[in-house]
Amino acid sequence: MTSPEIIGPASSYYVSQRLRLHFVDWGNEQKPPLLLVHGGRDHARSWDWVAQELREDWHVIAPDLRGHGDSAWAIGGHYTIQEFVLDIAQLVLTLDLAPVTMIGHSLGGSVVTHYASIYPENVSKLVSIEGLGPPPAMIKGRLSRPQWERTAEWIQQVRDFSGKTARRYPSIEAAAARMIEENSFLTEEQARHLTVHGVARNEDGSYGWKFDNYTRVFFPQRYDMDSMREQWGRITCPTLLVRGLQSWAGDPEKDGRLSAFKNARSIGIDNAEHWVHHDQLDEFLKEVRDFLAE
């Protein structure tokens, strides 16, 4: 695997809802734009291996979502899917990227599918890696709970997080080891690269993750499958749904979510969990290249 440090991207910033948000640009501006959107508790440089492989044919841009990486934290620690979509909409407008191809992972996959449903004319092709949210069976119990109960739970979560101190690590190696605990498919080289770009050094010399701890808190909005299906049905561009066969995400073809899309297909990649583009990079790139070339 080629080390992403050989040629790195340029860092830039833009403003959305008064927040200074960071993105990296891999150059090649004469090529069609490709936006890579990371997942929760992740960062833009998580895409480096993908970006380095696709940069010859695409103008690759990868943002740090608010509260992540080198982007500003939201005042009050309030993070909803709509605000993440707002930020992506602002980035597309600021850089005049439309029509744009989008690839998103997890939270980022949800963000780009939301964006494509709101502005279908702005998206040429869409790849969502486990970005449809929890499978129907997993959210069934949560849907049946009343709004007051979900709100009470959210208030308690916020109070709990207000008293937590972000975890600190004595070294890059210790933080990278925690990364491998989270995803055992990572190589040591991958874990170190993700960690180097995912931590900041504290005044005492220790290291802490860059993401805002409040991004872990689930806002108590209702996740209604009928509304989601209506939303996915607004997406007009060709769409590829990717999942790891060893992941918890579920098969959108079997559980019916795929049928909500007008023009989509679903694939599963073996020996991969939630981070498919890390766990099986070569297979992921092959599928994505074939899809983008169609």
How would you describe this structure to a colleague?
This protein has a single domain, classed as Alpha/Beta hydrolase fold, catalytic domain (Rossmann fold, 3-Layer(aba) Sandwich). 35% of the residues lie in helices and 19% in strands. It has ten helices and ten strands. Strand 5, helix 3 (107-118) and strand 6 form a beta-alpha-beta unit. It is globular and about 50 Å long.
Characteristic key phrases:
globular, eight-stranded mixed β-sheet, Rossmann fold, 35% helix
Main sheet: which strands, in order across? 1-2-4-3-5-6-9-10
Low-confidence stretches at least 5 residues in length (pLDDT < 50)?
Answer: none
Spell the H/E element sequence.
EEEHEHEHEHHHHEEHEEHH
Biggest sheet, in brief? 8 strands, mixed
Percent of residues in β-strands: 15-25%
Using only C-alpha atoms, the radius of gyration works out to 18 Å
- The tally of beta strands, per DSSP, is 10
Task: Tell me the name of the CATH class.
Answer: Alpha Beta
Number of helices: 10
* Annotated CATH homologous superfamily: Alpha/Beta hydrolase fold, catalytic domain
Distance between the termini: 26 Å
Q: What is the CATH topology assignment?
A: Rossmann fold
- Shape call: globular
Mean pLDDT: 94
Give the count of structural domains.
1
Helix content: 25-40%
Architecture (CATH level 2) name = 3-Layer(aba) Sandwich
